[in-house]
Amino acid sequence: MRWLFTGILAILVSPICLAGPEDALPPLARRLYVEAQQLEQAGELGRSALRYKTVYELDRDFAPVISDLGRVWTALGKWDAAEALYLDHPYDGDAVEALGLLYLDTGRPADALDRFEFLALLRLGWPEADRLAVLAL
User: Fold this and answer.
1) How far is C-alpha 106 from the geometric centre of its chain's CA atoms?
2) Which of 104, 102, 94 is closest to 135 using CA atoms?
3) Distance (Å, rounded) from C-alpha 56 to C-alpha 47?
4) Left if phi > 0, otherwise alpha if psi is -120 to 50, otherwise beta: which for 25?
5) 102 to each of 6, 13, 31, 111, how far by Cα in Å?
6) How far apart are CA 4 and CA 10, in angstroms?
7) pTM of the predicted structure, to 2 decimals
8) How far is CA 41 from CA 31, 34, 62, 84, 91, in A?
9) What count of other Cβ atoms lies within 10 Å of the Cβ of residue 62?
């Protein structure tokens, strides 16, 4: 009887373990997000950015799309747009990290250091924040 319970539990839990972050999105946003990822991988950054932006507009709290959209905008040279996006999410560790890296890449080491020091507070005990701060010095 116990093996039956374990088998049923495994069947019920396994789809949860296989779920990706996009599974939290409604169907339209999920489809657009997957398309955006595929377009980005194919090097079609402009089209990818449009889809990521649409997903972001549909669900501004979906953390992965914040990083994805900012990364694509940065690659396209749209630094102001990426910066504004990251600044809209001041307590998202990935956005704070990406903003610090953007500041480093655009010659603003003092601003980068500020973001990396704040990142160390957001991610207590994460040694990478200290390494990033050193890069900004």
Assistant:
1) 20
2) 104
3) 14
4) beta
5) 48, 39, 29, 10
6) 10
7) 0.82
8) 16, 11, 20, 24, 28
9) 18
Q: Which two tokens stand for residue 10?
A: 């495994």
List of the chain residues with pLDDT < 50: 5-7, 9-10, 12-16
For the chain, count helices (H), then strands (E). 8, 0
pLDDT (tens digit, 9 = 90+) per residue, 31-58? Answer: 999 999 999 999 999 999 999 999 999 9
Candidates 124, 74, 131; CA nearest to 99 is 74
Q: Is residue 28 packed enough to be buried (19+ CB in 10 Å), middle (13-18) or exposed (0-12)?
A: exposed
- 44 φ/ψ sector (left φ>0, alpha ψ -120 to 50, else beta): beta
Q: Look up residue 89 and give its amino acid.
A: H
